[in-house]
Amino acid sequence: MVHGQDEPAFMDDGGFNLRPGMETSISMRKEALDRLGGNYGDCTKNGSEVPVENLYRSKYTQQVCIRSCFQENMIKQCGCAYIFYPLPKNAEFCDYRKHNSWGYCYYKLQDAFSSDHLGCFTKCRKPCSVTSYQLSAGYSRWPSVTSQDWIFQMLSRQNNYTINNKRNGVAKLNIFFKELKYKTNSESPSVTMVTLLSNLGSQWSLWFGSSVLSVVEMAELIFDLLVITFLMLLRRFRSRYWSPGRGGRGAQEVASTPASSFPSHFCPHSTSLSSSLPGPAISPALTAPPPAYATLGPCPSPSSLAGAHSSAYTLGKP
After folding, report:
1. Tens-place pLDDT, residues 17-51
2. Residue-wise burial string across 215-247, b where 16 or more C-beta atoms lie within 10 A, e elsewhere
3. Residue 289's closest CA among 265, 313, 268, 264?
4. Pair 174, 142: CB distance under 8 Å
5. Closest by alpha carbon to 158, among 168, 170, 167, 146?
């Protein structure tokens, strides 16, 4: 099995087998995967937010978390720890002399673990950064018939023990990098805020044929419509409560008001003087009080009024 230096090896999950009497050549290619976390995916950077204690004291991986979760449930339900997994604090490995039924408890717990009743696969999230190695294998017959005697002799001297002349007891393994570079696969958001605003602007320009200036002009048009509507409503309100008909009725009421109701500075001399002067009788219609606005003028003296009336009657004689 090929794995990183800071990751434990789990032979039951990965790896490859070697055939005896064969030379196996393994070529490797390193690949890295960077996932997006937060709002884009459910992954963890270092496993600090995962509610499972890392018993391996190594880099966080999903397999490390799953086995740590199984060991915790093993201690809680069976009272002892599984011997092939790390031992937590204040715990002991299972022993038939102390735990008679731990084997039955283990297989029962294994069934619950496989069906995810323990929740380990849900709790243990994938890491955001993963390094893997893609392997490809090649096989050839080894050792050959002509060189097997010499190879067995050299292996016996190197390892200080005798190797029987049997090809089924030896194997050769070659591991090398296929290329001196690695591949990185990174996730990126398909839609960001910048691309979203850009797409909205493009769609707006496509369907409405507008630009920034057109938007400003449209806003100005809406503002002008609101102002004009407000002015029309204000004009209608003023015409309703300040109509000319109210002013006309007020003038008629003032014109028909008797003389006794005018202010003290109103001049009543014209009526009394004209009635005392000789001459033809004056129609009552001519003796009506003047309009209300005439009361604001100065009052003439009685002598001037008398002179004016006498001259008027003198001119009227035949």
Report:
1. 888 889 999 999 999 999 998 888 889 988 889 99
2. eeeeeeeeeeeeeeeeeeeeeeeeeeeeeeeee
3. 268
4. no
5. 170
